[in-house]
């Protein structure tokens, strides 16, 4: 489903997609989920969290390496 709302207002898009996914989870047939973008966003969240952990670990061990 091409949805230019993703490019115009990511917050509104994410709220609409979350609502649609909740309806899917409840067993409703929903045909307007923007699956391609939802999948990409989920992957990006995982990558972002991993990068944040790596950054925090580097900050935590840096003093020990300098010592």
From TrEMBL:
It comes from the Bacteria. It comes from Caldovatus aquaticus. This is DUF29 domain-containing protein. The lineage of its organism: Bacteria, Pseudomonadati, Pseudomonadota, Alphaproteobacteria, Acetobacterales. It holds the Pfam family DUF29.
